[in-house]
Amino acid sequence: MTHVYPTPDQPLKIGTRGSPLALAQAFETRARLMAAFALPEQAFEIVPIKTTGDDRSMIDADRPLKEIGNKGLFTKEIEEAMLAGRIDIAVHSMKDMPTEQPDGLVLNCYLPREDVRDAFVSRQGVAALADLPAGAVVGTSSLRRRAQLLNRRPDLNVVEFRGNVQTRLSKLDNGVADCTFLAMAGLNRLNMAHVASAPINPEDMLPAIAQGAIGIEWRSADDRTAEMLARLHDTPTAQRLAAERAFLAGLDGSCETPIAGLAVIDGGEIWLRGEILRPDGSERLFDEGRAPVADAALLGQDMAARLRARAPAGFFDWH
Prior knowledge:
Elements: E1 12-16, H1 20-37, E2 44-48, H2 56-60, H3 65-68, H4 76-83, E3 89-93, E4 105-110, E5 118-122, E6 137-139, H5 143-152, E7 157-159, H6 165-173, E8 179-183, H7 184-189, E9 198-200, E10 214-219, H8 223-230, H9 235-250, E11 259-266, E12 269-277, E13 284-292, H10 296-310
Parallel strand pairs: 1-2, 1-3, 6-7, 6-8
Antiparallel strand pairs: 3-10, 4-10, 5-8, 5-9, 11-12, 12-13
Helix pairs in contact: 9-10
């Protein structure tokens, strides 16, 4: 079927959060669409949308995400705008995305995945996590990072530390914490890789599910948009996320859940590593497995079931 593509008079509206990183991801999506269909920049309109998770007062006060809500903190208002027809597509950081979408919306287009690693960031010349002295103050709003840090270094003092990349760096400069962690993918997309004191290998700290991946969501009835986004879709990223997000779904993952996982393609197989932790880092359960690429989602489901079966009584009381 042939569709009429966007024009400057009738642009395709791209919804996004308003942070510099979210806008950079929207600009990347626009650039890929422009190149794929030989369209001018004016055929697209970037529409920033404020989400619940972007509330400035809560960020400045370092309110934990779990006090504000959990699933959909960074997506609800954007999805509502799309269902209402105010935007045509939404560009998301996949690590923010719930494992289920609202009726009428589809999330099945992924751009090529960026660096999956976390970045250790210190403004005090400390080169790596292992070099931090006992009692050092580490800022993070991620329950995953908090639990992983306390599991490895219970001597550290981990404090709540919210905001976008620029806000967290400013808090570091103001002495709120001695160091923090950011995603290498975000730093790369902002041309700020130099900010990282050192990237952290997944062998030392498994990343968040889907870290480094951009997903694009659209209305299921919008055939023109579905056709356009098919040109952008990166199959290897989709295969890896199928395993990771199935693992997350099997553990009922949310903003209240310390879960980490990473899938990589190794030949014709998916290799998935995953872990769950108690929020205080006192216990960590790890598993890994391999399966044919076609069985990526089944691998994630099976691994989640195995970890649930191994978890002692009370392990999931934080759900």
